[in-house]
Specification:
- The structure is a homodimer.
- The first copy, chain A, has eleven helices and three strands; from the N terminus they run αβααββαααααααα.
- By secondary structure, chain A is mainly alpha-helical.
- A three-stranded antiparallel β-sheet of chain A has the order 1-3-2.
- At the A-B interface, helix 3, helix 4 and helix 8 of A face helix 3, helix 4 and helix 8 of B.
- Chain A binds a DNA duplex through helix 3.
DNA sequence: GTTGACAAAATTGGTACCAATCCTATTTAC
DNA sequence: GTAAATAGGATTGGTACCAATTTTGTCAAC
């Protein structure tokens, strides 16, 4: 089943790693699928070398799994892994709550609110990937308020590990609606500098999704 | 300056990534040093391909930095980065304190104590690398008690980011002695199930080093 | 003596080829 | 009819080669 559909011109210069990752996150490659080098080579119009490097990186990120002389296949995440990562994210995102509240200016709050609005706006019109990225942007903006440059990349990595199948995460529309509402509540909590409330919200938000 | 010294036979089968990482951590390659592919090829007796993959991985881990058409050089860590990573580690390692105390059996405690002893024992006779690894083993055992498989790798990654020059971390012997003492105090805190004390100890321990 | 241009050497990074390995389909024996 | 064996095809992964780029060394001009 050698796919022959080539991607759009705008992706021409982007890194193959991100393109493959995006396709995995969009559900193009289902968990367990074997990623044949030739197929990827054709699909993304890259050399064998770049494809191999991309696969190696994704294997390091635990997005795909490498079996010697067999190839790479999309990782099948078990329930335990999801729980473990959720727990870590809760520790980190609640851990910075105090710092975020202390540092957030009124302008920061309106930026956050805007991002929360954008997520909510995509609820009806947006694709799964757009929703995923809007959600990512909101959390990223929140984390950035802590002023910890390293934390940013740590959480990004964590998210990538579970996001193998974001489609399966948000099954129902009602769940996404809850998420959107929680985003706004988080913004309010930051605005009112209510740290305990913010922490509770974050824990709920990460666990349920 | 093409080095020609080959490593021992036992390292023959190990991954080049870890060998290079170890040499960086041991201080063989000082921060800022350019890692030429040919040199590494000879030193570790590997093909060009494996060396490139290893460098790419280390670049991803932020241990080295990649400059297109120039090569890879050992990363120069600034003070801010160290503080940021220390903060993350504190959030995570104190965050699991309650779980560790709840789950730790008396056998787990004695294992920890043994590791703390080993670190202390190496204080006089051990090399910097041995000390580094003994310290790593202790913290790894502590983290494992939380039963979070993902956390293990997250913290390992974090440690690697700053450990570019572990030699410079432990300047004086007195500091290492303090670390050894704190390890034992942590074990005691776990044994007595004193969570606040354990958290305080961890924060002190990570910050000072 | 210093600065700038130019040539030579060295290094990186991509492409192509080929061996080793694994999967699949057909054939053969029972 | 079923199961094992074998041949064929496909895929991975390593090695070697070569082009593009950069750095170093040399020479000339000011």
């Amino acid at each position: 089943m050698t796919g022959s559909l080539t991607v759009t011109e705008t992706d021409e210069e982007r890194d193959a790693t991100q393109l493959i990752l995006q396709d995995i996150q969009s559900g193009v490659y289902a968990p367990g699928t074997w990623l044949k080098q030739i197929d990827l080579e054709i699909r993304y119009g890259r050399g064998r070398n770049e494809i191999r490097r991309a696969l190696d990186r994704l294997a390091l990120k635990r997005v795909v799994e490498h079996v010697p002389n067999r190839g790479y296949h999309v990782y099948l995440s078990d329930g335990k892994q999801w729980d473990d990562i959720a727990e870590i994210r809760i520790m980190l995102e609640t851990g910075i709550a105090g710092k975020v509240i202390a540092r957030a200016t009124s302008m920061d709050v309106s930026v956050l609110r805007e991002l929360a609005d954008r997520f909510q706006g995509l609820l009806h019109s947006g694709t799964v990937l757009e929703l995923y990225e809007a959600n990512l942007a909101f959390h990223r903006a929140y984390v950035d308020l802590a002023g910890n440059a390293e934390l940013h990349s740590v959480i990004a990595e964590l998210r990538q590990r579970t996001s193998s199948a974001p489609v399966s995460q948000w099954h129902t529309r009602s769940r996404i609606e809850v998420s959107a509402a929680e985003h706004h509540q988080m913004v309010n909590a930051i605005e009112q500098k209510d740290e305990p409330w913010l922490k509770t919200l974050i824990e709920q938000h990460i666990r349920q999704k």
